Amino acid sequence: MSANRPEPMFKNVALIGVGLIGSSIAHAIRRGGLAETISGSAHSKDTLETALRLRLVDRGCIRSADVVKGADLVILCVPVGACGEIAAEIAPNLKPGTILTDVGSVKAAVVRDVAPHVPEGVHFIPGHPIAGTEQSGPEAGFAELFDGRWTILTPLPDSDPAAVAKLEAFWTALGSKVETMTPEHHDMVLGVTSHLPHLIAYNIVNTAEHLERVTNSEVIKFSAGGFRDFTRIAASDPTMWRDVFLNNKEAVLEMLGRFSEDLSELQRAIRFGDGETLFRLFSEARAIRRGIIEAGQDTAAPDFGRGNKSAAAAASGDKADGDKAGNGKADGSATARAASNGKKSAAE
Q1: DSSP letter at 140?
Q2: d(CA 187, CA 107)
Q3: What's the rounded Cα separation, in Å, for the pair 75 and 97?
Q4: How do strand 73-76 and strand 59-61 relate by DSSP bridges?
Q5: Could you write out the DSSP letters of every residue in 144-172?
Q6: Long-range contacts of 292-295 (CB under 8 A, 24+ apart)
Q7: Residue 6 CB coordination number (10 Å)
Q8: What is the dihedral of CA 156, 39, 245, 87, to 10 degrees?
Q9: Chain mean position to CA 331
Q10: Residue 252 has what DSSP assignment?
Q11: CB-based contact 151:129 (threshold 8 Å)
């Protein structure tokens, strides 16, 4: 151990799933020297081989039950619908004192599905890093994904305070700001800030796709900045978001009902020429945007989908077609990583 390097926080971190979030955790662990070894599991042999080739993990296993042997931190980096089944599989091999956590966007359902399988002496502390991009797979990850972003922990009433503090320190070392709340409150908050926006994005992109009087080529050719933002969000992993909506249905339906009421108010204002109401509602929404920028959750820098324009022009042979630059994609370059951190994440 280098004299200038602190002791690792964990001896062996086991990542169950090495997609965007799992691989980014691995990169951030390497960056901070937070574990002596990293183990990883994936259902696909190709995914596992990629994770080993990229040195995301030191040891790889197909079976989740094998990868957790000897681990003192286990992170479930899988869709929320798979957490319960995996918890049942790994439970016999979890040693006392191990911290078990997850990265799912829904918390109450994860508690419901995982907690019954957690052995005595294992510390189950659900978590959710609010970070991501529309990319997926082990090659999409990068160490800076969590820098300056929030991670929410939802400890249970009987969670060990020392274990909670250690997990909070771990996420802080990964670059996150950390907040704690109950699983139910988390699901309500994320229902409006993440889940509903994704539902709207999926719907509006499909609406444009199904309009008979607008062709697909016109939708693509004349897409304005707002629509492009929706398509970026709608490019998120369908499996993950299917599980999110099925496992947070109460909060999402409540938020969707409120959204429908507010949309009806806008519809009435447009129909009856009520400019005063439109101006008031738009001004209120604008103030929220300013608050997000002031809180450091996004940048006020102009972004019209033309980041890294010269590179895109060179790649496409058409200097005017800067929209194809791939701004915000985790392709391993410093430019792409910085762009991804500066944009609102699609997979949150």
Answers
A1: G
A2: 6
A3: 14
A4: unpaired
A5: GGGTT-EEEE---TT--HHHHHHHHHHHH
A6: none
A7: 11
A8: -50
A9: 17
A10: H
A11: yes
- Quick: pLDDT tens for 325-348: 333 333 333 333 443 443 344 445
Which residue in this structure is represented by tokens 């079976």?
Answer: 63
Question: How far is it, in rounded angstroms, from Cα 66 to Cα 74?
Answer: 12
CA distances from 80 to 76, 83, 167, 223, 243 (A): 9, 5, 20, 33, 6
Tokens of 171: 């996420």
Distance CA 280, CA 286 (A): 10
Q: In what order do the strands lie in the sheet with 99-102?
A: 59-61, 35-41, 10-16, 73-76, 99-102, 123-124
Tokens describing residue 59: 């040891």
SS3 for 28?
A: helix
Ramachandran assignment for 121, one of left (phi > 0), alpha (psi -120 to 50 degrees), beta (any other): left
Look at 223 and 200; give whichever has higher pLDDT.
Answer: 200
Give Cα 167 distance to the centre of its chain.
18
Three-point CA angle 65, 35, 67, nearest 5°: 10
Look at 53-62, 98-107, 336-345 and tell me which has the smallest mean pLDDT: 336-345
* Cβ 164 vs Cβ 192: under 8 Å: no
